[in-house]
Structure formats: C-alpha cells, structure tokens
Design goal:
The complex is a heterodimer of chains A (231) and B (375). By secondary structure, chain A is of the alpha/beta class. Chain A is built from 6 helices and 10 strands. In chain A, strands 6-7-8-3-9-10 form a 6-stranded mixed beta sheet. A 4-stranded antiparallel beta sheet of chain A has the order 2-1-4-5, with helices on one face. The chains are: A alpha/beta (231), B alpha+beta (375).
Chain lengths: 231, 375
C-alpha cells in the first residue's frame, strides 16, 4: 500500500508573460519502508516535485495522495489543509540543515514537536528518544554552531523523524558533508527508515545515495524517466 | 516548553540591548515628563486638596486659586446663616511684594485666614505655632522659598509691601503652580498690607458643611444668596484650577508632544529592530512553516518577543525615573509616579511593542515555505 502517490502531476509557474511548465505529468508511488532516490540535472524539477510531495506547493494539474489525504489543484480549502498534512505526515531534511541557531539540539527537535502539537514532558521524551536514535545523546545540549556538519544533519534527521511522520523528504542531505560523513548519514537514514517503516524520498546529485536506495528515478525536463506508477 | 521567541531574542544580545534601550528610553521619557507634569498640576491644587473646606465660594469666573478676585468680606455672614453650613470663613489668596535682604524684590503668594487651625492650612508646619500669627505682624514661610529668597530662619524679618514682618514659623509642601513661595499670615494683617484693594474684601469663602447636609442644596442656596459669585465643591475647584493650566498654557501641549515623541521613538526602535530580526530569521520562519507551523505560530513568536521587550524595557526604564525623583526634589520639582500611572505606562508599553511587532506581520504572512529549499 503506497503512502505517497503522485498522479500525472503538472506544475506551471508564470514568470512575467511566460508560463513555464516545470513538471509535465509526473507520476510516482512510494511504499512505507522504501527509499527512493530522485536524481536529475539542475532545473529539471526535482525540488518542485519534492515541494509538491511535501505539501509546500500544490500541483497545477493532477493530484497527490499523502498518507491517504488527497491534495489536488490549489483552491483555498486545499491550501488551508496543507500545514496540517505537513505536521502529521511529513518530515523534512534540508541541504542547509535549517536548524534554529538559538536552540540546542534537543530544543530544535522539541520545538518541532511542539509545532506539531506535542507538549511538555512528552515532547521532551520524544526529542531525547530520536536524538538517541541518531547517536547524539551526548550532544543534545549543544547549539548548532558547536556541532559538526554531520552532527547538524543528524539533528535535522532526528527532527524529521520526531512525531513519527510516515514520510521523510530529504533535499540534497549530503551536499554539505564530506564523503565519509555523507555515507554515515545515508546509512543512518536507511537504517532508521527501515527500522521505523518510513518512506524516504531523497533528492540528490550524490551518486552515494544510490547505494541506500531501493529505487532510483530520474527527472529530466519535468518528466520522470521511468514512472513507477502508470498515470 | 521551548520558547523560540525568547531564545532568538537573547541569542543576538546587542540587538536585544538596543531594543530594550529604545523601549526604556520611551518609558523614562514618559515617566519623567508626565511625572513632572503631574507634580506641577499637584502644586496647582495642593492647597485646595489639603484645606478642610467642603465648598469654595469664589468671585465670578475665577479661573484658578492663584488668580483670585476680590469681593466684600461681609458676604461670609450670608453664607454662615445658611442651614447646613457648619462653618464659613474668609480666605485671602493674594500676590504681594517682599523685599529681600539683598535689596531685591520678589513676589509672594499670601494665604490669610482668621483661624488656620480650623481649615488645616498649612497642613505641615515644621517650626512655630500658628496660633501666634494673631499676636502681631508675623508670618509663616514655606521652606521651598529658600530657592527664591535665599536662606532665612525663624526670627528673621522681611518687608512685605514695605511693612516689616517677622518670620515666626516655617511650613513644608505648600506650593503654587506659579512657583511663587507661599506665606501664611493673619487675615486682618493681609487686609492692612494690601489695604488699597483688600480693605473690607476677601477672595474666597471656605465652607464646612454640617454632618448630613445636602451639598447640592447648600450650593444652590449660596448661589441664590450670592448670585455674583461662584460656588464649587472641593473636587470641582481643584479640577478647575488644574484644568486652567492644562488648557490655557502651552504646558499641556508640551507634555502631550513629549509623550507622543517618546511613544514614537519607542515604536520606531521596536518596530525597526523586530522587523530587521524578522528579515534575518525569514529562513527560520520558513522552516517553522515547512514543519507544519502556520502564520499564527510565527505571529505568536513576534508577539512574545514584543512582550518581552516591553516588560524588560519597562523595568529598565522605570529605574532612572525613580532615581531621578530625589534629584528633582532637590531642585524644587515634584516628580509624581503613582502605582496607577505606572500600570498605565506598563499597559501602554505593551500595546506600543505589540503594535510595533505588527509591522512585521505582513512580511511573515508572505513567507513562502519553499524558501527552505533555497541554498
């Protein structure tokens, strides 16, 4: 049973007088526990697809089903539901980590849980649990500036995992890490997704990602090279 | 609970300090300016508030206690005979000239009664006995006169309207809005000194009501018997005296202008620092949205920051205001900071900071969570 589906997704942007079609009928399906690498050259539409799968953008055509919730063309009601879907079903990991610099590792995770509606001691326990999972139990009181790149990305992964969203979306998670640390982070990602039965879509240029992916899909000129689901 | 608002605010300590200084400056400015204004207004009615009169009979259209006009002193008999009046006495408030030992002439505001003890005037004597005022050409002088007249002591002599009078006592807290020092002397002596205008004249009649008397009925009867005079309750007369200075001089406008400028400085500083902080944290706010937060979550962050700035700024701003109080007293100025006024300033500061935070709301509403994917 897929936890994330894209059906003939089209996305257009209006730039001045021109309409640019970034995605041209993309279809994709991802199961729980599956790791999908999404590759493609710059400007091919990878990040746009990730934004639509992550309910940050709405499709101009087609539809996306996120953990059973249908998201189609962006009328106001759909737009209003997006934050709630993101809260419940999606965890993001960003290329630049996007940690809150004023918060410690523990607080970064705890704050994300609070935004998702978890409060007090429960949020604190869950934050400690996921930091333990990513091997940062001894760094939880550290501010991001005192952590290495790999450690920051682990905090970001812990934040994404917190609250048990069924879908994780990662945007170039190893781009700012050296090769060895990048591989460690990817291995951690794969293990956690399998152990916790989460679906993971990783947008990447990094060939190492292939080593942890169950499937590699390539996007070029707004089309997937090998659609995983018939439109 | 993790407070991103507080942590972000304290993370950049220099900006936080600037924000707090901006708020504190506005708070101090408002406290000092309004406190001094309240002090001046207090002087404008301090003798009315302390005198134990329930009603004041004045000449027609007297604007305030200092700018009195004369009327026949026998009018007091008409008032004394009104049912419900327990006691009525004449009071002279009149500006006279005092010659100083230096040869200089200074004005003095004379309060003259037949029996001071019956009217709680003056209310704070530091030397001498008021009963002695009837024994000769004597007077009491308020200690605040030192600034205008130079040092003086009980037993010294001064000339008022070219008559040599002896200082037999001193008072405190007796002030007038005009800052002219106040002297207290016997009613007949005051009439003699200014005989050209004050012969058989008074400027006020003080009225004490009998227990259970209907104040409005007594007022109406006084008005019927003295149709060319005005009658005020203590509260009305104090209010009228204060309002005169606010409405008829630039001091009210000056106070409002300074308060407005203080508030403007506060709003600009807080709005500017919060807006800059918002711009610098756009990506963080984008992250908040990406992880499921809405505009409301970010508004709450800005509102919390504004509230912290208001509370800390208020606390920092109130300290110099209180420290200035004794310094102001030394130079003869009264700085009044009442708990009620402090609460008003605190609420005003909170509103000011929250309004300032709203400048950033539009920017926040426009944040696209997709910016988290930009490098």
């Amino acid at each position: 049973m897929p936890v994330l589906e894209a059906h003939s997704v089209v996305k257009t942007f209006v730039e001045g007088r021109e309409t640019v079609e970034v995605l041209r009928g993309v279809s994709l399906s991802v199961e729980r526990g599956e790791v999908v690498a999404l590759e493609g050259p710059s400007g091919s539409g990878k990040t746009t697809l990730l934004s639509i799968l992550g309910c940050i953008l709405t499709p101009s055509g087609g539809r996306v089903v996120v953990d059973g919730e249908v998201v189609d063309t962006g009328d106001t009601r759909v737009m209003r539901r997006l934050p709630a879907i993101r809260k419940r079903a999606i965890g993001f990991v960003f290329q630049q980590y996007n940690l809150f610099p004023a918060l410690t590792a523990l607080e970064n995770v705890e704050y994300a849980l609070e935004v998702k509606g978890m409060r007090g001691a429960e949020a604190h326990r869950e934050a400690e649990r996921v930091l333990d999972l990513v091997g940062l139990a001894d760094r939880k009181k550290f501010l991001p500036r005192d952590l290495s790149g790999g450690q920051k990305q682990r905090v970001a992964i812990a934040r994404a995992l917190s609250g048990a969203p069924p879908i994780l979306l990662a945007d170039e998670p190893t781009a700012n890490l050296d090769s060895q640390v990048g591989q460690q982070v990817l291995d951690l990602f794969r293990d956690l997704c399998r152990r916790e039965n989460r679906a993971l879509v990783v947008v990447t240029h990094d060939p190492k990602v292939r080593s942890i992916a169950d499937r590699v899909v390539t996007i070029r000129d707004g089309r997937l090279s090998e659609p995983a689901l018939a439109a | 609970m993790v407070s991103l608002a507080r942590k972000n605010l304290l993370h950049d300590r220099l900006r936080f300090a600037i924000t707090i200084l901006g708020v504190a400056f506005a708070v101090t400015l408002v406290f000092v300016q309004v406190g001094l204004f309240l002090g001046l207004l207090d002087n404008a009615s301090v003798t009315i508030e302390n005198a134990s009169a329930d009603l004041w009979v004045t000449s027609k259209n007297t604007p305030n206690i200092d700018f009195s006009h004369t009327f026949p002193d026998v009018y007091v008999q008409r008032v004394r005979s009104i049912p419900g009046v327990a006691r009525a006495d004449n009071l002279i408030v009149w500006f006279m000239q005092m010659a100083l030992p230096t040869g200089a002439q200074e004005g003095t505001e004379v309060y003259a009664l037949e029996d001071f003890s019956a009217w709680n005037l003056p209310w704070k004597t530091t030397q001498g006995s008021l009963a002695d005022l009837k024994r000769g050409p004597y007077f009491f002088l308020d200690s605040s006169a030192v600034r205008r007249y130079g040092p003086f002591a009980v037993g010294d002599y001064r000339e008022i309207f070219e008559r040599r009078l002896k200082i037999i006592g001193t008072t405190e807290e007796a002030r007038s809005f005009t800052t002219t020092p106040i002297t207290f002397m016997d009613f007949r002596l005051a009439q003699e000194l200014a005989y050209q205008t004050m012969q058989a004249k008074t400027t006020y009649i003080l009225v004490k009501l009998a227990p259970g008397a209907d104040v409005n009925a007594v007022k109406a009867e006084i008005h019927r018997r003295l149709p060319h005079n005005d009658v005020f309750t203590k509260a009305e007369w104090a209010q009228r005296s204060r309002a005169y200075w606010v409405k008829n001089t630039g001091i009210g406008l000056n106070m409002y202008l300074t308060v407005f400028l203080g508030i403007l400085v506060g709003i600009v500083v807080v709005a500017q620092t919060l807006y800059t902080a918002t711009m610098e944290h756009l990506k963080e706010f984008g992250t908040v949205k990406a992880i499921g937060g809405g505009n409301r979550d970010i508004y709450a962050i800005l509102a919390e920051q504004a509230t912290i700035a208001a509370l800390v700024g208020f606390a920092v701003g109130v300290v110099p205001s209180l420290l200035l109080k004794p310094a102001m007293t030394k130079i003869g100025l009264k700085l009044i900071v009442t708990p009620g006024f402090a609460v008003v300033v605190l609420v005003g500061t909170l509103v000011l900071c929250l309004v300032s935070a709203m400048v950033s709301f539009r920017k926040v509403a426009a944040i696209d969570p997709a910016l988290v994917f930009r490098g």
